[in-house]
Design brief:
With about 475 residues, the chain is of the alpha+beta class. Helix content is about 35%, strand content about 20%. Among the domains are: about 120 residues, Uridine Diphospho-n-acetylenolpyruvylglucosamine Reductase, domain 3 (2-Layer Sandwich), CATH 3.30.465.10; about 110 residues, Alpha-Beta Plaits (2-Layer Sandwich); about 90 residues, Alpha-Beta Plaits (2-Layer Sandwich), CATH 3.30.70.2740. Helix 8 crosses helix 10, helix 9 packs across helix 11 and helix 13 packs antiparallel against helix 14. The relative contact order is 0.13.
């Protein structure tokens, strides 16, 4: 159960202003409304105050105040999360890192950067480019999402297939614990003695503290790339092609799939050049040294054709490649062309089960009378069904919740997991018993309580604890073991 103690007294705004200054504290209803939700959009909750610290010391002072008062404290990046991770479920204080947005250092010789949590993902790569380097994790929201948020959710992206997710590129963290204590785990070196506390905090979704400084690994820019679009009449054929490419050992940097409904939306919005009569397309990119790369691309194209691709286009230049990628990177936003609202799912399955699970997704959509386009990282089996609906209709919203739960259950039953990169948050925490047994979950709770005995840090997230937001969704939790 949540252990949030009591609502804040009227002096909270004054105490926070004394710590940070009045220009770094928001308390008006209008301002607070803007922090009620994230990009998942299904659940809202009103905070009691929002603070915008500029330094680690200020973060520490706020955390210490919240801990002493028993107030919930919810870290927040850009609010682009897709699992309700930054929604202030139990009210309290939202700790926004919008003003801690500086790149503190780029060390090209040792290939690392030091950044504050509010740095935009893409800005880091742009700053490192002059050194021939970049930051590899590339969420589709990389133009607006922050490195701190990426750390909290262990975000991935289109190039996860070759380069891995955020945790593979984090060298060290400075973290403010719930008590206000500041610790550093890891640093610029490749390895550190002792327990891997970096791995504990990356992906903890802000439930163990607030990250205030991040050391990240930078990678050399590839000498060249080849981007291709494989066109299929059916999603099953495209799915089989994914497995065949990886099984052959010709692993590309990225392998993304869009089905026909997603293609329709993308073409309406961006005119990226995807054929609207296709059942599915695979957007594939290979990278490396120029010598031999054309042969690598040709081998992958041949495998796709052998699996039924009716056409494989290879971008002639960077402009064409960027046009193809604009469709995939903007696919989620393009859903606004089809529906006033959409709910993004994030499940993981073995690549070999793609055809089966996609059929299950279609069946769930038909049964609940919901349209579900699919846009996802096919190479690593990370599905993103997008459930289209009208949030102004409460009955539709209830159907969306039920359909989402069934889709994630299908992913688990196929040998997969509840999330690949969007986190568990409050949207999926009740489903954690589908993956973990009671003893597993209790061990996670023990770790959390050891760091945060009062459970003030981002309550109601990650682990199945029935917070206010979860109750308000009306979803049945009995089957999840509550």
């Amino acid at each position: 159960m949540s252990t949030v103690v009591s609502p804040p007294t009227p002096s909270l705004a004054g105490e926070l202003s004394a710590l940070l200054g009045p220009d770094q504290v928001l308390t008006s209803d209008y301002d607070l409304t803007l922090y009620e939700y994230d990009a998942s959009s299904l659940t809202r909750a009103h905070p009691d105050a929002v603070v915008l610290p500029r330094t680690t010391d200020q973060v520490s002072a706020v955390m210490k105040l919240c801990y002493e008062r028993g107030l919930p404290c919810t870290p927040r990046g850009a609010g682009t999360g897709l699992s309700g991770g930054s929604v202030p479920c139990e009210g309290g204080v939202v700790l926004s890192f919008a003003r801690m947005n500086r790149i503190l250092d780029i060390d090209p010789d040792n290939r690392f950067a030091v950044v504050q949590p509010g740095v935009i993902n893409l800005q880091l790569s742009e700053a490192a480019r002059r050194h021939g380097l970049y930051y590899a994790p590339d969420p589709s929201s990389q133009r607006v999402c922050t490195i701190g948020g990426n750390v909290g959710e262990n975000s991935g992206g289109a190039h996860t297939l070759l380069h891995g997710v955020t945790t593979n590129h984090v060298l060290g963290l400075e973290v403010v614990l719930p008590t206000g204590e500041v610790i550093t785990c890891g640093g610029p070196e490749e390895d550190s003695p002792g327990l891997d506390l970096r791995g504990l905090f990356v992906g903890a979704e802000g439930t163990l503290g607030a990250v205030t400084t991040i050391w990240v690994r930078l990678s050399p820019l590839p000498e060249t790339t080849r981007t291709m679009l494989a066109v299929f009449d059916h999603t099953n054929a495209a799915s089989e092609a994914v497995s065949a490419v990886v099984a052959n050992g010709d692993v590309p940097a990225a392998m993304e799939m869009l089905d026909n409904a997603a293609i329709q939306a993308v073409e309406l919005a961006y005119h990226a050049g995807y054929p609207t009569d296709a059942g599915a397309v695979l957007l594939i990119e290979v990278e490396g040294v120029a010598e031999g790369l054309d042969e690598h691309a040709a081998a992958i194209a041949a495998i796709c054709e052998a699996q039924g691709a009716r056409e494989v286009r290879i971008a002639a230049d960077a402009v064409q490649a960027q046009k193809l990628w604009s469709g995939r990177k903007g696919a989620f936003a393009a859903m606004g062309r089809l529906s006033p609202d959409y709910y993004t799912m994030d499940g993981v399955i073995p690549r070999s089960r793609l055809p089966d699970v996609l059929e299950r997704v279609a069946e769930v959509g038909h049964r609940y009378d919901l349209r579900i386009p699919n846009v996802f990282h096919a190479g690593d089996g990370n599905l993103h069904p997008l459930i289209l609906f009208d949030a102004s209709d409460p009955e539709q919203a209830r159907r969306v919740h039920r359909a989402a739960d069934e889709i994630l259950q299908a992913c688990v039953e196929a040998g997969g997991s509840l999330t690949g990169e969007h986190g568990v948050g409050l949207e999926k925490n009740a489903l954690m018993p589908l993956v973990f047994g009671p003893d597993d979950l209790e061990q996670m709770r023990r770790v959390r309580r050891a760091v945060d005995p009062k459970l003030i840090c981002n309550p109601g997230k990650l682990l199945p604890t029935p917070g206010r937001c979860a109750r308000e969704t009306g979803r049945s939790r009995a089957s999840a073991g509550w």
